[in-house]
Design a protein that fits this description.
Elements: H1 4-18, H2 23-35, E1 41-43, H3 44-51, H4 58-70, E2 74-79, E3 82-87, H5 89-103, E4 114-118, H6 127-139, E5 143-146, E6 149-152, H7 159-166, E7 174-178, H8 193-196, H9 199-222, H10 229-247, H11 263-290
Antiparallel strand pairs: 1-3, 2-3, 4-6, 4-7, 5-6
Helix pairs in contact: 1-9, 1-10, 2-10, 9-10, 9-11, 10-11
Length: 322
């Protein structure tokens, strides 16, 4: 029996009506989630076929692809009258970096250390450089503690340095390790969290995600019916697109700094459930479209089967492992 074609189609139609995705952003979601594990290459006609059911017409898609090529995300190859697009090195790096936050699990126990970036007001730091640095640090989850001072409790030690080098201002800012002094009568660093990050707004986004996909999660979890491939693929893309838009703006703070009822945990568990319930069927549709020309469409990378910590199935097997 097929649930789900009707349930998934209704959900897809509702999501496309209430919050239609932007063509370029949805294209990035598809490239990272669906195509990168299969080698990262696709014919333009196949990309159009995959995204048209999601409200992206050919004109918008061509414009989006052109911009992604110009930005270094994609590389274009002409084969007669056909165009093949594949992830360029920059696209591969950006996709891999984002994947850590999109599919990763909860943060490990926090040891109390902070990474702090200080941008002195003196020196040669222009307004444009400071604005660009602030944008890059906030994208990586840093919060602004004070003007010119940014901090994060769980950032990788080289994240700040990489950002500074990429902006060619490595010699214009300080990168420090910090922690609260034991016994000092002072405001704990962690108490600044509500001021440095919009946790209330982020929590509401997670709750909206739960409202959008919660009933579908229960329906799919029953396992009594299977999703049809085309509907499963469309829903998987919208699920990941909405999840990516939220989680890439989540600073991913330690659990000890979050409210005890933090909805991000429930939302991640729901995303994992729905994602893996749709995965096998969605891969069938993807192969039927992107794999029909052969050649550049590769077998699924085993790394993809570790997303969200791996699937939970009654048999205990990962999708595609049979």
């Amino acid at each position: 029996m097929a649930l789900a074609a009707s349930a998934l189609d209704r959900l897809t139609a509702r999501l496309l009506k209430t919050d239609p995705p932007r063509a370029k952003s949805l294209c990035v979601t598809l490239l990272g989630d669906a195509l990168e594990p299969h080698g990262g290459a696709i014919w333009l006609g196949d990309l159009i076929a995959l995204l048209q059911p999601l409200g992206i017409n050919e004109r918008l898609l061509r414009t989006s692809v052109f911009r992604l090529v110009a930005e270094g995300w994609l590389h274009a190859e002409r084969h007669g009258r056909r165009s093949l697009y594949r992830l360029a090195p920059q696209g591969v790096r950006s996709t891999a970096h984002a994947a850590q936050r999109i599919y990763g699990g909860t943060q490990p126990a926090w040891n109390g250390d902070w990474t702090v970036v200080v941008v002195p007001r003196t020196g040669n730091n222009g307004l444009a450089e400071r604005t660009e640095l602030r944008r890059a640090l906030e994208w990586e989850g840093f919060g602004m503690v004070a003007p010119g001072v940014f901090a994060h409790p769980c950032a990788h030690s080289d994240t700040a340095g990489t950002i500074l080098r990429s902006l060619d201002i490595a010699d214009k800012a300080l990168v420090l390790a910090a922690r609260d002094l034991p016994g000092a009568t002072a405001l704990p660093f962690a108490e600044l969290a509500p001021q440095c990050w919009d946790l209330a707004g982020l929590a509401e986004q997670y709750r909206a995600f739960i409202r959008q996909f919660g009933s579908l999660g229960k329906l799919l979890q029953e396992g009594s019916e299977a999703a049809q491939p085309a509907a499963a693929f469309a829903t998987r893309m919208l699920l990941l697109h909405r999840w990516r838009r939220i989680v890439l703006h989540d600073p991913q703070l330690p659990a000890s700094m979050l409210p005890p009822d933090w909805p991000g945990h429930t939302a991640r568990a729901l995303c994992r459930t729905v994602y893996w319930a749709l995965f096998d069927a969605s891969e069938i549709h993807l192969a039927e479209i992107a794999g029909r020309a052969g050649g550049d469409y590769r077998p699924l990378s085993p790394v993809a089967l570790r997303r969200f910590g791996g699937p939970v199935t009654p048999s205990g097997n990962a999708p595609g492992s049979a």
